[in-house]
Amino acid sequence: MKYHRSVLFITVFMLFTAIYLFSNETQSKITEVTVYSDRAMVTRSLTIDLVPGENKIVLSGLPGILDPASVRVKGKGSMVLKDVKVADRYLTGEYSEKLNSLLAEMEGYEGDLRALNDRTAEARSEKEFVQNITAMLTRPSDSAAGVELDPDKWIKMVNFYREKITGLDKQLRETEKDSKDISKEINRVTKEINSLSSRRSKAVKEIVIILNSPSEGKGILDVSYLVPGPSWIPDYTVQVNPGNKVVSLLYKALVFQSTGEDWNDVKLSLSTAKPSVGGNIPELTPWYLRLYKPPVYSRNSGVLSKSAAPSMAMSEE
């Protein structure tokens, strides 16, 4: 097994696809991850308060793609490992509080949007009314010659029109901007609701650990498991300095994972090995060794007789 921990300079880029997972019933923290070509070994550590007798430790909300056969548990403290079980847990109904909160938020935004739409319709109707009145007053007619042309009255009318239209246009721009902002929030909440609803029956894994302890005290557990999917690929950058004729090699690793777990601030190792989950010992083909028998010279024929078997032969019995 070959590990790459630091070759020259290692830079790790991690690409995540967020998946909503509930917090564990027993709080644990990912402390170490080993990434292989097509999977990753994740190690979680947790400190537990032991009581005399049987202790039940539950780690829930783990990735649904977790391989049950790969779970390993080791610990420190006055305790004996009795049993480890892995089961699926369906999250139906556990999103109700979050979902109700999102629905209430959506209802508030929709109410605000309806109020803005009403204000927009009123401003447009008022603007149309002012424009129609102005058109009627300024429309040429047969009796136009007898209309009194009072400059003060026309200036007042023009000022009134300008102020009114300017105010209405400003109100329309503000309501349009507010409507766009609220529409963005509605789209955000809608996506969260759809995402949440689509995962209401999503299965996650749950690890149940049964321990026996003779007395009260503290214990430390390390729980590791394999999750398929994560991978990494090497990336090399060569930099040449013509001045001092120095060539530097920058070795990077691109790490990809979409398990739904947060790998921030963990000890990360990259491996080229291909682990076997089953752990079956391969069946070896036996080799049998025989004593070497030199060829025998025949006096009658003057030639060597048929030689014996070679010094080493492979056969099966």
**Rg to the nearest angstrom?**
39 Å
Low-confidence stretches: 1-24, 306-317
Strand order of the largest sheet: 1-12-3-4-9-6
Shape: elongated
Strand content: 25-35%
**So how many helices?**
2
The helix content, as a percent range, equals 25-40%
The overall average pLDDT, rounded, is 77
Distance between the termini: 34 Å
Q: What is the N-to-C succession of helices and strands?
A: EEEEEEEHHEEEEEEE
Structural class designation: alpha+beta
Characterize the biggest β-sheet. Answer: 6 strands, mixed
The number of distinct β-strands equals 14
Task: Give a written overview of the molecule.
The protein is built from 2 helices and 14 strands; from the N terminus they run E-E-E-E-E-E-E-H-H-E-E-E-E-E-E-E. The longest helix has 48 residues, at 151-198. The chain has helices at residues 96-138, 151-198, and strands at residues 3-4, 12-15, 29-35, 39-50, 53-62, 72-76, 80-90, 203-213, 217-228, 231-241, 246-256, 267-271, 288-289, 312-313. The chain is of the alpha+beta class and 317 residues long. Helix 1 runs antiparallel to helix 2 (151-198). It has a 6-stranded mixed beta sheet, with no helix packed on it. It has a 3-stranded mixed beta sheet with strand order 2-11-10, with no helix packed on it. Strands 5-8-7 form a 3-stranded antiparallel beta sheet, with no helix packed on it.
In short:
With 317 residues, the chain is an alpha+beta fold.
Q: Can you lay out the helices and strands and say which pair or pack?
A:
Elements: E1 3-4, E2 12-15, E3 29-35, E4 39-50, E5 53-62, E6 72-76, E7 80-90, H1 96-138, H2 151-198, E8 203-213, E9 217-228, E10 231-241, E11 246-256, E12 267-271, E13 288-289, E14 312-313
Parallel strand pairs: 2-11, 3-12
Antiparallel strand pairs: 1-12, 3-4, 4-9, 5-8, 6-9, 7-8, 10-11, 13-14
